[in-house]
Write a structure and sequence with these properties.
It contains two helices and three strands. With 121 residues, it is an alpha+beta fold. Strand 1 and strand 2 form a beta hairpin. The two termini are 29 Å apart. The chain has two domains: 42 residues, no CATH class; 79 residues, no CATH class. Strands 1-2-3 form a three-stranded antiparallel beta sheet, with no helix packed on it.
Amino acid sequence: MKVVDPGHAYALLMLDSTREAFLRFVKREGEGYPGNSGHYAGTNMQEVMRALIDRLKYLNDQIPDRRNHWIIGALRESISLLEERAAERHGRPFPKVPFEIETVPFCPKCGHIGCKGECHE
C-alpha cells in the first residue's frame, strides 16, 4: 500500500499484475474538515467494509472457516461504530439497525445510515 494523498487516496498492490489498484476516499473542504486542502469525490470506509464483508462471504462459500464469521462480525461492529460517530457529530440519533448492518440503506449524499437527506453534499 502506498499513500498517494494522506487519509484520502491509496495505491494498493494487485496480485497477479504489475499494476496497482486505486482506492480514493471522499475529500471535502471547509470548517468541518480541518487540514483538508482540495476536494474530490470518493467512497467512505463503511462502503469499503461492505465490500470486504461481501468478499469474505464469497470466500467462506468456497472454503468455510469459523474465523470468517468473527471477521464479518468485527467489520459489522466497525461500520456501526463509524455510523454512531457520524450521527453524534451531526447531532442526530443513531437508529437501531439489524445485525446485518451492511444491508441497511444509507443517504446517497453523505453515505451515512439514519440521515434523511438533511445533510450537506
